[in-house]
Amino acid sequence: MNQVSVLPAERVLLLHKSGAGTRLAVVEDGRLAEYIIARDSDRRLASSIYLGQVINRAPSLGAVFVDIGLDHGALLPLNDQPPPGVDQRARRVQRRELSPGDRVLVQVIREPDPGKGARVSRSVVLPGRFIALTPSFDTVGVSRKIVDEETRARLRLLGETRKSGGAGWILRTAAEGETDEAIIRDAEETMSLWRDIQDRAKTAAPPARLFANDDITIRVARDLTDSRLKECVVDDEGLYNSLRAAFDRFAPERIGAVKLDADHPPLFNRYNISIDLDKLLARRVELDGGAFLLFEPCETLTAVDVNSGRDARLRSERDSVLSINRIAAREITRQLRLRDVGGVILIDFIDMRFDEDRETLREYFIECSRADRGRVRVEGFTRRGLLELTRKKSDAPLRTLLTKECPHCHGDGRVPIGDDGE
């Protein structure tokens, strides 16, 4: 079966300013693809860099706890793994042993959970628009989502010949199709930011936040702006001015796409975003033709079940099953982005009897996942026929931002039966 690219051809960004913060809707090819809530009262900690102080050691965990100014100490594994995009055999910067009272520069790699501290790393990855700087690893990596071998080779050669200061590069997906000059300029700006962080770390008193990654306008201009961007519409003048400043820094060639539209009706309503949100957290997701998906979020994993329902497209049983599964795969990858599902994900597709059909579906799922900014790793089909994958979420799962635990059932979601059977 011929593989056709399923990457979106057109992207529209909608930013709505409300009293509590900012909401961002990413619309790709007319459908809601991502929904991000940035509340003024909340701090997004992921990727932020802190100067912390070691509180105590945890030998059984092979880690230490670090005070970075939060309610709970952050967990710092002493044997840091190279960040994604860096060769696992890459040379590491020599690490000194850590003892209580030591100052240490760390980056948040996992948001804190209720009652549990953040997870941090000494392997800093500083994001630019086209490259990510890796000061701890003097190597060059290229995003897996860039699949053209000639492009990968060109970008790798550029990184090998132009990186400096002992820091490595990871060429981001946005670097594909960009000029060498634009990539080098971005690398120089990112390196300058790293030097500034290092300078401030020398004089700061821990705990101190040295780099924040919670400005929604910077994230839009840096991470969501490429050749597919048609327009970026904002309904608040202050937010519009901040966004233009971010575009002027990270994507000056796209600044014309930023538009102010404060007219009524509300921005999201005109694009039917509220309708999509009503269905966003539903357990059941309908597919074209009568098939449907069932999402079951659990504590440590998410299960997705694909049901054929009343789908009656029968060229042959084999063709029909693969067709329904491909439709399901594309919608599942969209839903994982929308809901920002992280961790282990198990998908029970409609049973396929042929190994080549399972391989075709696995490759198609990987192709659909290329549009996801979260890191998706497809492990393959288990012995029981479940597709197993992992996804690193970008923010807190959307259901935790839009809903709260029921005070009556405390999350069980079931109604007790009385003595009378009712």
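(the above was protein one; protein two follows)
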Amino acid sequence: MANTEAALKDAMSSIDGALGVALVDYGSGMALGTLGGSPSFDLTVAAAGNTDVVRAKLRTMEMLGIQDSIEDILITLGSQYHLIRLLTGRGGNGLFLYLALDAQRANLAMARHQLKRIEKELEV
């Protein structure tokens, strides 16, 4: 089992095109850990903003009566992919992994596969 720091390092090193990764509590909007990013790409701001995305989708599912869980949410930009993966393992309730990728260098299918593996190994 990997702790937060090890999981974030694993994501940055094993996922081609990774620009930044964060573990986020969507109840509070706080990033519990971040790695990567840049002066022009603040992961704590991205974490807080993507909390709103997760909350909105959960609210919509509830209003529609959808009795299912979110595996991941993908946002595609012109030059980036943003992947949000809700944690389902023990201790992961209310948390998500957020991964920003360079669309030119990333393989989206492999990134999703790696993030799923990292989630399974993460111990919160």
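Reviewer note on protein two: Residues 43-64 form the longest helix (22 residues).
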